[in-house]
Amino acid sequence: MRILAFDAAGKGLSVAVVEEGRVLAEAGLNVGLTHSQRLLPLVQSLLAAADIAPDRLDMVAVTNGPGSFTGLRIGLATAKGLAETWGVPLAAVSTLAAVAYAARGMGALICPMLDARRNEVYTALYDAAGGEIWQPQAIAPDELADRLAGLAADVILVGDAAALYWDMMQDKLGDRVRLTPPERRLWGAVGCGFIALARPDLAENAAAAQAFYLRLSEAERNRLAKEAKEKEAREQKDGVGV
Predict the structure, then answer these.
(1) How far is CA 121 from CA 117, 140, 141, in A?
(2) How far is CA 65 from the centre of its chain?
(3) Which domain holds residue 37?
(4) Is the pLDDT of residue 241 over 60?
(5) Number of domains the chain contains
(6) N or C: fewer beta carbons within 10 Å in the chain?
(7) 47-56, 74-83, 153-162, 223-232: which has the minimum mean pLDDT?
(8) Is 87 in the same domain as 204?
(9) Same domain, 86 and 202
């Protein structure tokens, strides 16, 4: 099976074509450009450079979260459009699992860290073979460091926030923590493709694929806060009139 996979959920943007045991093509960007402007051209140029026609693809795979709300929407919309156009199934893969894939086999527990802003990171914990230990969650970096420090095991960090909080992690874990090299830290497309290969149960009709946001968007939080204030004001007004 041959899969086109891409990851637009984080700061980096990556695209790959994989088949059993092989990466046929891979490309990534980490230059601050808008994913909406770059994803489809990157897909098209990669397929052209590798001389891979769409009719030679069996599936499209995409990371579906957690991650940037805008990036997830861009990735899923593009994946759905391509899968429907080409008449192939779509596999939606956890962003954290896809990013963590790059650190498999490195002899340590794998902790992906994606920047969630608001002084939080999206994270999970996997064993050295990629088995999930902690479910995806949003957590403050210092709380994550404390939890990892309580484990009697070496940990390897991967993801776009790993270097950002490296000093904190090293202070708490000492020589039990490692940082993946830059070329393995950021992009999740290859991991997304290989996970989709290994998990045929992830394949579904493109229209059914959904984003996994993990927490509310800022717009949704603002809406709920506004509604709460309006409700409080109504209750206070009703109380005064009694």
Answers:
(1) 7, 6, 6
(2) 5
(3) 2-96+187-218
(4) no
(5) 2
(6) C
(7) 223-232
(8) yes
(9) yes
